Structure formats: structure tokens, C-alpha cells
Amino acid sequence: MADVRILTGNEAAALGVKLCRPNVVAAYPITPQSQLAEILSRYVEGGEMRAEYVRVEGEHSALTVCISASTVGARTFTATSSNGLLYMHEQLHWAAGSRLPVVMCVVNRGVGAPWSIFNDQQDSLAQRDTGWIQLYCRDNQEIIDTIIQAYWIAESLYIPVMVCYDGFVLSHTMMPVDIPDAEEVRGFLPPYKAHTLLTPEAPRTINSVLFPWRRLNPEGVLCDGYMEMRYKLQAAMTRAHGVIRKANDDFAGVFGRDHGGLVWKYRCEDAELVFSGMGSIANEATVAADLLREEGIPAGVAGVRTYRPFPREEAAEALRGAKALVVLQKGLSYGYEGCLTSDLKAALYGTPLLIPVVDVVAGLGGRDVKAREIAGAGRDAWKDLQAGKLENRSLWLNCYTGEDHAG
Amino acid sequence: MQDNLFKINETEYILPGSRACQGCGLTLAYRHMLKALRENTVLTIPASCLCVLHGLYPITPVTVPYLNTTFASTAASASGIAAGLRALNKTDITVVAMAGDGSTYDMGIQALSGAAERTTDFIYVCYDNEGYMNTGTQRSSATPMGAITTTTPILTKEHSKKDFVRIMEAHDLPYLATTSPAYPIDLYEKFVKAKRIKGTRYMHIYSPCPPGWMFPAKDTVRMGQLAVETGIVVLFEIEDGKFRFTGRSKTMAERGKKQPIINYVGKQGRFRKMSIEQLNRLQAWVDSRWNDYLRKAEG
């Protein structure tokens, strides 16, 4: 008998975390993550979840607690948003460099200054190069399911995972969610085994200073230098593609839901105009694709679920029949273009797909993006494509950019 | 584990060959501290002189397990270790966070205050060598007034040393103590006591630093003794709110005399640009604190 409840994204996330039975939770409140931290407190104080909950004095400490607890063998969880994530930045590198399978929900929110409590994805996009796996969720069902998969992925690879979902758009919006069975989750997700334990039973030094070169230990074994350790992280990230796919497929086998491991596709097979994006805006694009299909425009969506490690091959494969690509994104690399645009263009490099790419920055700081507006951007691109004049271009959707800039 | 005349554990936890400087006060203190804490101890340490002492991967002279953490996060790291161990029912391990004055007085104060407020079960050790010595003797908020550092090279440090121990006292800890490597038995006994107590324990080690303070490496113990004998460093403990002088400071309090501060500052190159006015201010600062402690000891 399925257990379907009407839940906000944060409620779904909290239930997902509880199902994964972390030993240690550390969190610091920030809008729009707060509700998640509150529900987990209730679980722990009410005895529904057996975990140590460390109510830290800041996000830097929240992630530090997870890192250190993970080092003594605990499964850990934290969650944050926006400036809280930026405050963790140093520890993001530390977690990945330590190869610790911390799982964190990032409830995506715009970054100050100026202040915005509303959604975009600049916070997690700015952490792209910290060595974390980043998974982006489309809806509340995907949030709960992805958290369970995230632990499986993190603990298979010893790489921390961010489960990213849009603030308010998902975190505070209710939708039906099928709650996975606790026993089935127990079967899917084996207990955490640390690769290097901090324990008096086997004293060792963890993360000590390294010379630039490899070095012999007292037994005469040549040990890794800094660069070898960094290479291993990159190699594990490359291996992660297969692991993320397997997590998705195995999860689908047990629970009957397939969210697309790396890239998900919607009406993509015969699509000539393809939208791409991550999270809820990509979901919105599926409605836009339907609208355009009604007008006879062969539109589809190739949504990116796994942003790091970037699914180069799967992305190129999803775009195989495309004649134009419209990338919707809630974050950019200032001075260049939307982060996802750059990555998708790079994925097409070396393939025969030299199609025009429209870089659409949208929804920053919670600016509303409707399906018909996404469809409008697609329609404009399609018209120009038919007229033979579509080239790579950038536009800011629903944004006043001045009289002299039509967008 | 044999004991000697002074009942000090004879096991060595720092083997010969550390990367610390000649005459390092920290090393001496650390040796006796580990003897007191014994086995079943885990440490977390930020980037610091102590981190250098611990050596370069994959070789270390230290036999206790330890985790390296970032500069601001030492006490938060101990919180995580303690929470993880508790969650896994490993409650017999002593968790120690140990950092220098830079990462305690300056960058790490937030995490330490937070961990103390949460009554985290760990020992926090600040070894205070009064500056950023590992990075080349820059000024910290623990640097005494009148000292030359590489970031106060001409005018010397204008501000008084932050009274950090008093900040920790305000956290109402079950145990707090000040120590010096010049008095190893006092230090040892305090760590033995700290290990037995639950909750957040704060241990302060005044750690003379020959290169940073500019005195000959052979004089580390003498410099530590002079610090106490002039009253710029006071040996005491506060257990459940009860203040008590210990060791040499106790004797001095009983006899009611201490040496003038010039006997201490005059032997260190870092104070060579100190003005008479600064010297008088420092003496007044030492006297005022000393009188505060005397009042505290009376209860």
C-alpha cells in the first residue's frame, strides 16, 4: 500500500533524511532551509530519529561537525542555503579533499548583495569546483528519492553529495509525494563504512601536511603526494557517472521511480528545438515544450540532473537531433555566460553538433518564470532558426535591460 | 605504564624527530600533556606550529591519532568528533582540540564559544605563544603590548593582550586551568584532572617561543619561569566556579611578592623597542590583573 502524502519540499527532504538514518545532523537556520532543520529537530527530540543533532553557531561549523563525525564513522547530514553555503565554502573543499560521504541539501536561494531570500541557483553553482557531486531535483518526489540515492552514491565513492532543490518553488510548495518504505530503504542503503577511521584502536594522522612530491613511509612504501590524492578525486568523479546511473536504476528497480540518472529527457527523441536547465525551471520547460508542440514546433527538454560530474556524453547524446539549444539557468559566471551554457557548449565540442545555443538567464532572485515566457524564448529562437539567422546569443528573460537593449 | 618519583606517566607519545624549532615551549608542554591524557585520546588540530610538529605525511613523531582541520574550525571539529563517537556509543574516548593563540583568540573564537555553550564533552587546549609564529611571527590579539612582530615591526603592538581566559571563564565551564611548560608537574596534574571531568574543559598553555620572542633556545624554561614570577602569567585553576592559585603562583600569592616586569621583558628581543611609557602601562596591567586574581582567590 503506497504511502502518499501532500508535502512541501522541505518536509519531503526531512522524511528522506530520516529514512537514511544518519548518526549525526548539524545545521544552522537560514531561509528557505529553516523548516528542514526544524523538522529534523522534532524528529530527534521526539525520538523518531536516533541521531545526535548539533545545533551549531554557524554553517562553517555545521559542515565541520559533519566532516569530523564522518571521520569517526558516523553517517552525517546538513542543509543550508545561499550565504550559508558560501560561508561553508572552505569546508566544502575540506569534505571533498577528505573523501567523506557527507550529504547536504542545498535549498537554492539567491546570494547577497543585495539581499534576496528568493530562489535562484547562484549559491550552488558558485560551489561547482569544490569536488562535490551536485544533483538537482525537479519536484518534491525527486527530493526524497534523491536524498536516498545520494547516500548510496556518496558512500560508494567517498565523495560528498549536494542535493539541490529550489527554495520556495519546491521547498515551500506542497505536492503529492510517495514515501518510500523504511524497510525497503534499509535494504537499498547499507550501513556507512568509513575508509579511514579516527580511532585510538589504530592511531593515524589524517590530512597532514604534504610535500609537493611523493614520499616514502617508514616501511619504505612510496605514498601519494598532494597531486596523486587530487588525481584520485578526479578519477572517482569520472567513475561517478556509472555509480549515479546505477543508483538511479537500482532505485527504480526497488521503488519503481526513474528520475534519470545524469540527464533526463522529455519529448526529446524527435525534438529539433531543445531546452535544457536544472531543477524546477527545467520542469517548467516541459510545459513550454508542450505549448510549442501545439504550434507545430518540435520542442523537447534535456534536463541536467547531475551537474557535477558533468554528463558530457549523455548531454551530447540527448541533443543528437537538435538544431537549436535554449539553456535556461538561474545562475551565471559573471563576465561570461550561464554556467550550464558553457558546460553544454563544451559537451558539444568535438561532436558534429555545431548548433546555435541561446543562453537564457532567468529567475534570478525569485523573478517569476512562466511556461509561456519560456515558450516565447523558444519560439523566437525557432523563428530565427527558420530564417537562417539564429546565432549563439545571450538574453535575460523578464528583465528590464534598458531602452537600447532589446534582449 | 610505570610512574616515576613525580607520578608522571613514563610512556612517551612524542618520539624523537619532530619538526618543531629548537627550544620549543609547545613541544615540552605537549609531551607532558599527552603523558597525562594517555591512550584512548583523539585530537583535532588546525594549521599551526603544532601541525608542523606533527610532521609531514606519511611520517609523524606523534603516536596519538589526530585529525587536521581548518583554522577557524578546531572546536567545531571536536564537536563533530564528540557527536559521532556518542552516536556510535564510543563514550570512553577523550576528545581534545588543540590550537594556538591565533586560531583561538582570533579566528576560532566563534566555534569555541559555540562548543562551550553546548557543553560539548571535550578538552580545548590553547597553546599561547603570543602571535602567529608558524607563519613568521605576525601579531595576534594575544600578542602583548610593546612587542615587535613582523606586522608591528616599527611601532610595536599598541594594544593590550586580550584576556581570553576571562572570556572562557564567562562560559561557566566545569574546569579551566592555566599552565606553563616551565612547570611540567603542575601542567601534568591539571591535565590528569581535566581528563576525569565531563563537559567542556579549557586549558591554557603559556608557551615561550625562542624565535618569535627573540631569546636563546636554551632559556625556554627560564623564560616560562620569569613569566610566572613577574605575574604576567598566573598559574591557576577554576573548578566549578572555584578559583585556586596553583604551583609557583600560589607561593607568590602567599608571600605577597612578585618580580618587576622588566626582569621578563628585558630578556626578550621582541620588547627592545618598548618605551618607558609602554613598560609602565604593562606593569600596571600586570598589577591590576594580579590584584584581581588575589581577590578571586579570597572568594
Can you summarize this structure?
The complex is a heterodimer of chains A (407) and B (299). Chain A is an alpha/beta fold and 407 residues long.
Kindly state the mean pLDDT of chain A as a whole number?
97
Number of helices of chain A: 13
Strand residue content of chain A: 15-25%
Q: How many DSSP-defined strands of chain A?
A: 18
Structural class of chain A: alpha/beta
Main-sheet strand order of chain B equals 2-1-3-4-6-5-7-8
Question: What percent strand of chain B?
Answer: 5-15%
Radius of gyration of chain A: 22 Å
Which spans of chain B have pLDDT < 50 for at least 5 consecutive residues? Answer: none
Average of per-residue pLDDT values of chain B: 96
Main beta sheet of chain A: 7 strands, mixed
Cα(first) to Cα(last) distance of chain B is: 39 Å
Can you tell me the CATH architecture of the largest domain in chain A?
3-Layer(aba) Sandwich
Shape of chain A, please? globular
How would you characterize the largest beta sheet of chain B?
A: 8 strands, mixed
Radius of gyration of chain B equals: 18 Å
Task: Give me the CATH fold name of chain B.
Answer: Rossmann fold
Which chain pair shows the most residues in contact? A-B, 46 and 45 residues
CATH level-two architecture of chain B:
3-Layer(aba) Sandwich
How many separate domains of chain B?
A: 1
Describe this structure in words.
The complex is a heterodimer of chains A (407) and B (299). With 407 residues, chain A is α/β, with parallel strands linked by helices. Chain A folds into two domains: 3-188, 3-Layer(aba) Sandwich (Rossmann fold); 263-396, Rossmann fold (3-Layer(aba) Sandwich), CATH 3.40.50.920. Chain A is built from 13 helices and 18 strands. Chain A has helices spanning 9-20, 34-45, 59-71, 82-87, 89-97, 122-125, 140-157, 182-188, 226-255, 280-294, 312-318, 339-348, 371-386, and strands at 3-7, 24-26, 52-54, 76-80, 103-108, 133-136, 161-166, 175-179, 205-206, 215-216, 222-223, 263-266, 273-277, 299-304, 306-308, 324-329, 357-361, 393-396. In chain A, α12 links the parallel β16 (324-329) and β17. The mean pLDDT of chain A is 97. Chain B has 299 residues and is α/β, with parallel strands linked by helices. Chain B has a single domain, classed as Rossmann fold. Classes of the chains: A alpha/beta (407), B alpha/beta (299). The interface between A and B is large, with 46 and 45 residues. β9 (205-206) of chain A pairs parallel with β2 of chain B.
